[in-house]
Amino acid sequence: MRRILRARAQTSARAKARAPPTRLPPPAPARGAERLRDTRDIPPTTPDPITWLREDRARAQTARDPCAGLCTVATVDAEGHPQARTLVLRDVNGRLAVFLNRTSPKWIEFDQAPSVAVVVWLPVLNLQYRLRCRIEPVPDALVAASWQLRPSAPKRLDWLYTATLAQGSVVRDRAHLLEALESVPLPDPLVAPPTAAGLYLDAFTVDRLDLAQPDGVHDRRHFERREGDWHERIRVP
Q1: At what angle do helices 174-183 and 152-163 cross, to 10 degrees?
Q2: Are 132 and 203 in contact (CB under 8 A)?
Q3: Which residue, 23, 103, 187, 210, is most buried by CB atoms nearer than 10 A?
Q4: Residue 41 and residue 39: Cα distance in Å, rounded?
Q5: Helix H or strand E segment including 50
Q6: How large is the greatest C-alpha to C-alpha distance in the chain, in angstroms?
Q7: Contact at 8 Å (CB) between 213 and 192?
Q8: Could you say which architecture CATH assigns to the domain 49-150+194-235?
Q9: What is the pLDDT along the chain (237 residues), one digit of tens a residue?
Q10: Strand 229-235 to strand 219-226: parallel, antiparallel, or no bridges (unpaired)?
């Protein structure tokens, strides 16, 4: 009897050894884990630096930053010398733009340059933007409409440039300038002169430097536009 029981036990042990292991169902995912698996392979969205610039300028304007509406534009003159000027940076139909007068020497520099460099410095926020931009003319009709929003003195100056003294001309003294400005002939109705112009600034690289970091290490990000999309890289400040 003992031999029979021992034989049965050995047969049962062999059968268990040959049987495949029992497969348990996988554990249920933790709450939210399935959602993470669905999105983990999606690359993070690169911020649009122009939208970021627009938001930072709005914050600076709220904080009464005197530079919130300004930019510095750098070009190269006919002799190869660098030139930099502070201009009002405008947002025209969602695009960055500057307005100027065609009698100014900078108009020729803009007209002959394949690209320009632009710096926006927001001291209240400790933020600097450096942009490389291609330029494109603002349509004359839009220039004329925007010109009507200018204060009285800049309007008179535009007509002075056109009718009497080109921008950058030498005058005897400031009193002579003010006298000429007061007596400049103006059309009725008052419209933009044909020398008024505007240029869109279409950025293809943007460098954003944030100096306001609590650890003292500046945050520098470089953006490059390729095939319609922005690509971001972190750079050593």
Answers
A1: 90
A2: yes
A3: 103
A4: 6
A5: helix 49-62
A6: 133
A7: no
A8: Roll (2.30)
A9: 444 445 455 555 455 545 555 554 544 544 443 333 333 344 446 689 999 999 999 999 999 999 999 999 999 988 889 999 999 999 998 999 999 999 998 898 988 888 999 999 999 999 999 999 999 999 999 999 999 999 999 999 999 999 999 998 999 999 999 999 999 999 999 999 999 999 999 999 999 999 999 999 999 999 999 988 999 999 999
A10: antiparallel
- State the Cα–Cα distance between residues 19 and 21, nearest whole angstrom: 6
The DSSP code for 133 is E
C-alpha span between 149 and 46 (Å, rounded): 35
Pairing of strands 229-235, 127-137: unpaired
> CA-CA distance, 137 to 198, in Å (whole number)?
6
Burial of 100 (0-12, 13-18, 19+ CB in 10 A): buried
> What separation, in Å, do the N-terminal and C-terminal C-alpha atoms of the chain show?
88
Residue 11 one-letter amino acid: T
Extents of the domains making up the chain: 49-150+194-235
